[in-house]
Write a structure and sequence with these properties.
With about 200 residues, the chain is α+β, with helices and mostly antiparallel strands. Strands 1, 2, 3, 4, 5, 6, 7 and 8 form an 8-stranded antiparallel sheet that branches. Strand 4 and strand 5 form a beta hairpin. The longest helix is centred in the middle third of the chain and has 11 residues. The protein starts with 14 loop residues before the first helix and ends in a 9-residue tail after the last strand. The chain binds a DNA duplex (13 and 13 nucleotides) through strand 3, strand 4 and helix 6.
DNA sequence: GGACTGATCATCT
DNA sequence: GATGATCAGTCCC
């Protein structure tokens, strides 16, 4: 190898990344690359929208203590918490904090980078609409469809090879839009939703 | 632009 | 028995 040549190495985020405060992680995840390997079929996208679900948070599944569904939130950090909602969609979360704390970050949207054709097919097979064609990974439910994320990935380590997140530098604060979370009844006063501002987009929702 | 609704079922009370 | 960290379609302004 020649000295001076730049090799781009794709490094997974280390366990340490996930052992930090949930709000920090929710913001730090923006701009990072979520990769899914389903039997060798790779899909990937840049994380552009997240929500934090933490302590003393009435919107969190963990608010009323441990149950069989939310148990992964109380488990070790750096794993997936995948749950089924509205009888038809899955939502993908990254478990944060230390074991026993009951916190996670919901990944709400990606900018598709790799495997666009596969993602399009997966979404369309469940959803005939034309809109879904162009906005494959906008929204937690569609993102899971596109990336083939379901309950089989619940509790899966993000340090393994089925699903993982690549290291990238953090976005500057000026590129992060902060808003209330979507689709919740309680806890709306908390500004725990984080969206990457896309300079070429006129309005970011 | 926004408000509302049906689909559909695991989980919780 | 009711609810929900959703989505797409419809209706109305």
């Amino acid at each position: 190898m020649h000295a001076g040549k730049t090799y781009i190495i794709h490094m997974k985020l280390p366990l340490k990344f996930y052992q930090r405060p949930t709000l920090t992680i929710a913001q730090d995840l923006l701009g990072k690359i979520l990769v899914r390997n389903k039997n060798g079929v790779i899909t990937a996208g840049e994380i552009i929208e997240t929500e934090a679900y933490g302590e003393n948070d009435p919107a969190s599944h963990a608010f009323r203590g441990l149950t069989s569904r939310n148990q992964p939130m109380f488990g070790p950090p750096g794993r997936a918490y995948v749950y089924f909602v509205y009888g038809m969609y899955h939502c993908f979360n990254v478990v944060t904090e230390k074991k026993g704390r009951g916190a996670a970050v919901l990944v709400r949207a990606l900018r598709p980078i790799r495997g666009l054709a596969v993602m399009g097919r997966r979404v369309r097979s469940k959803n005939k609409s034309r809109l879904a064609l162009t906005r494959t990974c906008a929204g937690p439910g569609k993102l899971c469809l596109a990336m083939a994320i379901d309950k089989k990935l619940n509790k899966t380590s993000l340090l393994g090879n089925e699903i993982y997140i690549l290291k990238r530098s953090s976005l500057p604060k000026s590129q992060i839009k902060i808003t209330p979370r979507i689709g919740i009844k309680e806890g709306r006063s908390k500004l725990w939703r984080f969206v990457k501002k896309e300079p070429w987009t006129k309005s970011v929702q």
